[in-house]
Specification:
160 residues, mainly alpha, Arc Repressor Mutant, subunit A, two-stranded antiparallel ribbon, globular
Length: 160
C-alpha cells in the first residue's frame, strides 16, 4: 500500500519552500555550472552557450537552426544571434538549403572543428569538479533519476 504522500504526491503546499524546491536547486546548479564552464572555455574564446551549439553542429553536420532550437531549447531569435556570433568568429558556416531557401544547413569550419575536438576535455574537467566526492554508483543513480524525470516531463509536455 502506498503511503499518504505517494497517493497525493510527494510534495505539499504546507512544506513547500521555493529556495529548497527542485526547480530552484536545479536552476542554481545549472547557472553555476555554466559560469564555471564559461571560465573553463575562456581560453578557447567561446562561452558555455556557444559550446552547446558547437557540440550539436559538430555531432550533426548539416543540421538547421530550427533543429538546433528544438535540441537545445533556444528561441529562434537567440539562436540566430548565437549563430551570427559563431559565424563571425569563423567557427561555423551556413549553406543555403537547395530544397528550402528559408533554411540554412550548418557545419563547423576548420577552426570550429579544432575547437570541437578540444571540448570534451573541458567538459570532463567541469563535470569531475562538480562530482567531487561522489561515487560512480551515486552518479549513475542521479543520472537514472534525472532521465526518469525527463521522461515524465516529455510525457506531460505531450499532453499525456
Amino acid at each position: 500500500m502506498a503511503n499518504a504522500n505517494e497517493a497525493h504526491g510527494l510534495f505539499t503546499e504546507d512544506d513547500y519552500r521555493v529556495e529548497e524546491s527542485f526547480g530552484f536547486l536545479i536552476n542554481a546548479l545549472r547557472a553555476r555550472m555554466m559560469a564555471v564552464m564559461d571560465r573553463e572555455l575562456a581560453s578557447l574564446g567561446i562561452t558555455s552557450a556557444q559550446w552547446a551549439i558547437l557540440v550539436q553542429v559538430g555531432n550533426a553536420p548539416g543540421c538547421t537552426a530550427a533543429s538546433l532550437c528544438r535540441k537545445v531549447h533556444y528561441d529562434t531569435g537567440s539562436m540566430t544571434r548565437m549563430l551570427d556570433r559563431l559565424e563571425e568568429k569563423g567557427l561555423i558556416q551556413r549553406t543555403r538549403s537547395a530544397h528550402d531557401r528559408r533554411a540554412a544547413h550548418l557545419a563547423l569550419t576548420e577552426a570550429g572543428e579544432d575547437i570541437h575536438r578540444r571540448l570534451p576535455a573541458h567538459a570532463v574537467r567541469v563535470l569531475n569538479a562538480h562530482f567531487e566526492g561522489f561515487s560512480s554508483e551515486e552518479v549513475e543513480t542521479l543520472m537514472s533519476l534525472l532521465n526518469r524525470m525527463l521522461a515524465n516531463s516529455n510525457r506531460l509536455a505531450a499532453g499525456h
